[in-house]
Design a protein that fits this description.
Helices cover 78% and strands 0% of the residues. It has 147 residues and is mainly α. It has two domains: 69 residues, no CATH class; 73 residues, no CATH class.
Length: 147
C-alpha cells in the first residue's frame, strides 16, 4: 500500500506542484521526501486497516492528509489565471513548449503576493487576491518582454 501511496503522492506533486518537484529533483531529495511523508501516515494506515476500511478509502484519506499542506496549488491557480486573463500568452507558451517552465517561474515571481495575502483554500476565490495576482503576472510578463 505504501508504494501505491508514494506513486499517488508523486503524481499529485507532478500535476499540482511541478515547482516543488523540480526543487526536490535538483536537490536529489525526491525519493526521501516521498517516503518520509508517506511513512508519517503509518499510524493512520494501521488504524484504518484495523477498522477494516476498504483500500480505496484508506488511500483517499491518506492522500487527503498528504496533500493538505500543499493545497491549494499556486501553480494551478496561476495556470487558470494565465489561461483566462492572458489567453494569447498562455497559448504562445503552450505552443512553444514552455508553459510549465513559465508557470514555475510565475509561481516564484508571485510567491510574495501569495504569502502577503495568505493564499489558502479559504480565500482562493477572493477577487482582491485574484486582482493582486493578475497584477503580479502582468508585471512578470512585462519584465520578460523588456529583457
Amino acid at each position: 500500500m505504501q508504494e501505491n501511496l508514494i506513486q499517488l503522492y508523486h503524481d499529485y506533486i507532478r500535476d499540482n506542484h511541478p515547482d516543488l518537484l523540480l526543487i526536490l529533483q535538483e536537490e536529489n531529495r525526491l525519493r526521501d521526501y516521498l517516503h518520509e511523508n508517506v511513512a508519517s501516515l503509518d499510524e493512520l494506515i494501521t488504524q484504518l486497516v484495523s477498522e477494516e476500511k476498504p483500500i480505496a478509502l484508506i488511500e483517499q484519506q491518506c492522500m487527503e492528509e498528504l496533500t493538505k499542506p500543499l493545497r491549494p496549488s499556486r501553480y494551478n491557480y496561476l495556470k487558470e489565471i494565465l489561461e483566462e486573463d492572458f489567453p494569447t500568452v498562455y497559448e504562445r507558451f503552450r505552443q512553444h513548449g514552455i508553459l510549465t517552465t513559465e508557470l514555475i517561474n510565475l509561481v516564484t515571481a508571485c510567491d510574495e503576493v501569495f504569502d502577503e495575502l495568505n493564499f489558502s483554500e479559504e480565500n482562493e476565490d477572493d477577487r482582491y487576491l485574484r486582482y493582486a495576482i493578475i497584477g503580479a503576472v502582468h508585471e512578470y510578463l512585462n519584465s520578460q518582454t523588456r529583457e
